[in-house]
Amino acid sequence: MADGKSKLKKLSEITEGIAGAVGIAIAFVTPFLRPRRARWGATEAEVCRSLPGDDLVPHHKWGYTHAVTIRASAAEIWPWLVQIGQGRGGFYSYEWLENLIGCNMHNADHIIQEFQHLKVGDEIRHHPKLHSYEVAVIEPGQALVIHTRADTQNGNTFELTDNIPEKYTNTSYIWFLDGLDDGTTRLISRGRYDYRGLRNALSLGHFLLEPIAFATSRKMLLGIKQRAEAASKRGNE
After folding, report:
1. Residue 123 CB: number of other CB atoms within 10 A?
2. Which residues 6+ apart lie within 8 Å of 79 measured at CB?
3. Number of helical H runs and strand E runs in the chain
4. What is the pLDDT of residue 4?
5. Residue 192, class by beta-carbon neighbours within 10 Å (0-12 exposed, 13-18 middle, 19+ buried)?
6. Which residues face 204 on adjacent strands?
7. Predicted pLDDT at 143
8. What confidence score (pLDDT) does residue 79 get?
9. Can you tell me the distance from the alpha carbon of 16 to that of 29, in angstroms, rounded to the nearest whole number?
10. Residues contacting 220, CB < 8 A, separation 6+
11. Which is nearest to 149 in space by CA: 126, 164, 130, 168?
12. How many Å separate Cα 60 from the centre of its chain?
């Protein structure tokens, strides 16, 4: 029985991964939809809203604000957020696709207590062999921000008040929980990207990373929504 469930879970992951790949391919060939994808699910007020961590990438060259309504409280959603990361609870996105490029990702379907104690300065990874992100802001029950800023020539980090390197990347990911009066919560996800001196950086950002970022961010929000709502329903039964 357990082996059968494992096979069904694997088949589901592959099916979802294929659907994700198709979605990314469609995004590649529909550049005219980029403005709409950059604000998927978000209201005008949410797109314009200032969020914790925005100041880490104040002059972003491109980015997005996505959002979803979850039928659960912020307190119920927060444990799913705080355990994100490779080697932790995963990113609730296209696990099969991520593992095709060596991410070794495993999306959790339950709360993992050992990963519930995140703090500023902790590392969050997308891939075991690539650079990590640092937790820059953590406001329990409301905001989580991870960030990386580095000179791409030597790998050193720098502050915005320092001399800006000739070549650099500066990226932040923000997740914000906005509890509503009806007991639901808006989960807002924002990515901001700044860079300089990278070969074809502008084209890379808009034509390569944008479709992937859209697909994975959207899937993550829906993955958290599914898990949090199911757990909330079980808790209320």
Report:
1. 13
2. 111, 116
3. 7, 6
4. 56
5. buried
6. none
7. 98
8. 98
9. 20
10. 91, 92, 93, 189
11. 168
12. 17
pLDDT at 205: 56
pTM for the full predicted model: 0.90
Residue 163: CA atoms inside 13 Å, Cβ hemisphere, count?
2
pLDDT given at position 224 = 98
How far apart are the C-alpha atoms of 9 and 30, rounded to whole Å?
31
What pLDDT, on a 0 to 100 scale, did the predictor assign at position 190? 98
At 164, give phi and psi (nearest 5°). Answer: -75, 130
* pLDDT score for 27: 81
CA distance 84 to 174: 12
Residue tagged 């589901």 (tokens): 12
What average pLDDT values come out for the chain (237 residues) when binned by 10 residues? Answer: 62 77 82 90 98 95 95 97 96 90 92 96 91 94 96 86 88 96 95 78 63 92 97 77
Q: Distance between CA 229 and CA 184 in Å, rounded?
A: 10
The CATH class, in words, for 2-236 is alpha beta
Domain boundaries, the chain: 2-236
Rounded-to-integer distance, Cα 106 and Cα 98, Å? 10
And the tokens for 51? 């969020």
| 3 state DSSP class of 85 | strand
